[in-house]
Structure formats: C-alpha cells, structure tokens
Amino acid sequence: MIPVPGFEGRRVAVFGLGRSGITAARALQAGGAVPVLWDDGVSGRMQAEAEGFLVEDLTRADWSGFAALVLSPGAPLTHPKPHWTVERAHAAGVPVIGDVELFARALDALPKDQRPRVVAITGTNGKSTTTALIGWVLKSAGLSVHIGGNIGIGVLALPAPTPDAVYVIEVSSYQLDLTTSFAPDVAILTNISPDHLDRHGGMEGYVAAKQRIFQAQGPEALALVGVDEAWGQGIASDLRAQGRRVCTVSTLSVIPGPGAQRSEPGTQTVAHVAEAWVPGSATPPRNDGMEAAPGRLSLDGQPVADLAAARSLPGRHNAQNAAFAYAAARALGVSHDAAVEGLMTFPGLAHRMEAVGRLDGVRFINDSKGTNADAARQALASYPSVFWIAGGKAKEGGIEALRDLFPHVAKAYLIGEAAEAFAETLGGTPHIVAHTMERAVEMAAADAAKAGGEQVVLLSPACASFDQFPDFEVRGEAFRAAVLALGAKAEPAA
Questions:
Q1: E strand or H helix at 435, and its extent?
Q2: Which of 195, 241, 287, 463 has the fewest CB atoms in 10 Å of its CB?
Q3: Sorting pLDDT into bands at 50, 70 and 90, what band is 251?
Q4: CA-CA distances (angstroms) from residue 148 to 151, 211, 393?
C-alpha cells in the first residue's frame, strides 16, 4: 500500500467503496488522515465498518469540515449531471479528487531523489494490452515494476515507492478527470474514438479528459501519442507547440502529414515511431509523410523488430502497442536488445486477442475486451476469415462502422440485447441469432469444423457485457468454459 500524506488529522470524505474507494481510504488512514466513508450500497458500508472505518451519511454531513472529497470514478463528475456529493463539495469549496491524484500527491511528497518513475497509459482501445506489455518488457529487462490502476490492482494498493521502482499505470478518462498534479515520466495516449460520451458531455469533453494525462508533465517527461486519427494528431501538435518532448506512433502506411492516407484493412502490419526520445538522442522533429517499414516496427525509418515473430502481438493494433512499449522502454534506459526480447516473449493479455483453445484445425480467440466497434475492428482486421461471435449491450452506432470488414466474416453468431439490431446491420452477411454464449460457441465451432482447414472462431462482441454478464472478464471466461466443454485443447492463459 502507498500511504498518502498531506491530510494529517483532517477529515476526508470518500464516496464509493468499490476497489478504488476502499483502497483510497486505507491509504489516507495510513498517511494520518481521518477518512469518512459512504456508499449508496449497504454491502460497501458494511465492509468499511468491518475494517473499523468511520462510516457517516454524507447527505447529512457538515461539508465545511472536509479537506477533500475522494470520488469513485464510477460516479459522474459533470455529466449527465454532477453526482450529489460533487454538488455538496462544490458548494462548500471542497476539492474533488480521485485515487490517481492521491497517488500523484504521495509521490510528490517524497524527496526528488527518492521518487520512483511512472509510466501512465490511457486511450479508447489498447490501453490494457499496452500497460501489460510495457510491464512485461520492463520486468524482462530486470527493472522493479509495479502494474496497476484501471487494470488489476488499484494504484494505491501497489507496493510502497522505492527509488528504483517503475509504476506502470493504466488510467481511464474518469480517473483523469479527477487529477490535477498527476505527472508521469512517460505518458501514453494510444488512440481516441467515440466512447463514454454521456459521461463527458460529448466528444470534446472526452478528448479533453484523455489529454489531461499530459497536463502536469515536466519538461523532461515524454509524451507518446497515437496519431492514427485526427484527435491524436491535434493533441500531438498542441504538445509540440508547447515545446514538449513528443513521440508519435502510427500504424498508417505513411506517417500523418500532407496527403497521408490510411492503409486498407488486411494490408501488412505497419508500426512506426516518429520523434522518439531515448537517452542521449537528439532526434529532430519530422512529420513529412515518410514511409514506414511494412511488417516491421521501425524507429525513424530504421527497422527495430519483425513483429511477425511475436506470437502474442497479431494485427495492426498490436503493432501500435508494441511501438508504444518499445519507445517507453527505451526512454527509461532499457537497451534495444532487451526491449525487443521483451516484445518477442510477451505472453499476451487475458480477454484481448487471447488464444484460449484449439480443436483440430479450429482456433478459438477470446477478445471479450472488444467492447466497442473500434476495438472489434482491430480483431476482425487481424484475420482474413472468422466465425464471429458478437453482441451484448450495444454502444452508440452498433456495428455500422464495421461494414467494410463484413467480407472477413464467414458467419456471425449473435448474442444478447444487440442480436436483432446486429442481424439487421449484417444484412446479407451469413449470420444467426444464437442468444447465448454457449449456443454461439457450439454453432460456430461446428461451422468452422465443416469449413475445413485452419479456421478461427472469434469472440469480439463490439458491445458492453452488462446485459448477460457482470463484466467483460466474466464474459470471456464463459467463452473459455464453452470452448473447453467442446473438448478443445486449452492454451495457457496469460
């Protein structure tokens, strides 16, 4: 655990007692604060009381006595309307912060020579894989690494800081909205596409939340920005105009610039790192539409690694993840050879393009974390033909944006609330409404076996899971269980 100083003897309101809330309370208490906890759910309050915390109904509390409100990222800060605790805090002049901000303040309180380094990752898609991949590369290179945040362990539950440590932290837009002083040594924005618009008041608010990952970085810090879309290109330009150290990552056929065009789906993987800063380098800025090396990860036009040899990094999106990981590792002083070795040996991330089993010539791929159309696009584009399991609680736009990839779909098996709507969008593309995961896996496996040769059954739902499952992890495990029930040979979980 990471104790949070700065609130010694002062009352701090903590609302929302899920993973981040209860961990924040523990860290505040360890730092000398008096956390005052509340949750709308009885179970959260009971857990807090069992741990000996002060539980107080915040609807009746005197807010003038609080030094801060630590808000759960699940509670709305601004949209569709501010949570009632936010309104109470603002009325009393109480700052509203989150667990990542507490983490930042805990590190800032340390003497400069005692502070660990921090790599932070956000983005609409790819942030979990990139986080896990960076952690793997750094650990493989012998660094002391702690991985957490929006993935795995809550950030304040990670081990206490030591000067040699590197924290690799995934942060969501919700968490970033609650930060003011979070200043990673390496901050990464993988990509941006429409998501969570209801919580940010539209696309402008969502982009602004993501851009906050760079807001407090110092002059020596590195900003790594994915520039495959206009939002990332705009952010990179803004950061350059501020005189910041910027490294751009692209999977386009050419680096964005005058006349740059997106590659067609199914073309060779391209990942290019431009303007990368590594210790001792003086790489000049460039944004000239220079060709990237197809099939390879390249740094300013020079080949770095043949990504075809990395078994757990298929597809263009994973080439992007690899580019971020390589650039981040080099910025932290990892050698070229060690960074590439880490990429090549990465075992993959559960529920993200995860190979979970094989039955004769049929491979089963669990991409349950593909919770929107843009994420599903990355998976569909990675294979020439798939038997596709999709559906759940649909996001805005459904799968309309994936029409250009329907030729990759040998047949679709639709589940959950979105099944009928997806069936209408698919039109003449072969499909069937399977309703349940178990039935979809059975039918897809049978059809794939009949097709003969090497085939892929892909779960990439393009939907949230909440209609049938508590979260994407449970959905992915249901897929795995259904695959193994057929007699498929399990592949090791990442």
A1: strand 431-435
A2: 241
A3: confident
A4: 5, 20, 27
Helix axis angle, 315-331 to 127-140, nearest 10°? 50
- Looking only at the bridges linking them, the beta strands covering 409-415 and 54-55 are unpaired
148 neighbors 154 (Cβ within 8 angstroms): yes
Question: From CA 183, how far away is CA 104, in angstroms rounded?
Answer: 7
What sections of 179-271 are H helices per DSSP? 197-200, 203-211, 230-241
The answer, as to whether pTM is greater than 0.85, is no
Q: How much is the pLDDT for 253?
A: 58
Collapse the DSSP code of 430 into the 3-class scheme (helix H, G, I; strand E, B; otherwise coil) and give the result: coil
pLDDT score of 309: 78
Pairing outcome for strands 165-170 and 144-149: parallel
The first and second tokens of residue 176, run together, are 């970033």
Return d(Cα 436, Cα 415) in angstroms, integer.
5
Confidence of residue 178 (pLDDT cuts 50, 70, 90): very high
Per-residue pLDDT tens for 76-99?
999 999 999 999 999 999 999 999
Strands of 455-459's sheet in order across: 431-435, 409-415, 386-391, 455-459, 362-366, 354-359, 489-490
Helix (H, G, I), strand (E, B) or coil at 6: coil
* Strand 296-299 with 271-274, pairing: parallel
Residue 96 β-bridge partners: 69
Tokens of 441: 């896996």
Which residue type occupies 253?
A: S
d(C-alpha 278, C-alpha 222), whole Å: 9
Asked, as a colleague might, if the bond just before 80 is cis with ω within 30 of 0, I would say yes
Query: Reduced to 3 states, what is the DSSP secondary structure of residue 249?
Result: strand
- CA dihedral (432, 436, 442, 447) in degrees, to 10, reads 20
Long-range contacts of 236-239 (CB under 8 A, 24+ apart): 238/211, 239/214
Whether 340 and 326 have beta carbons less than 8 Å apart is answered as yes
**Residue 219 contacts residue 254 (beta carbons within 8 Å):** no
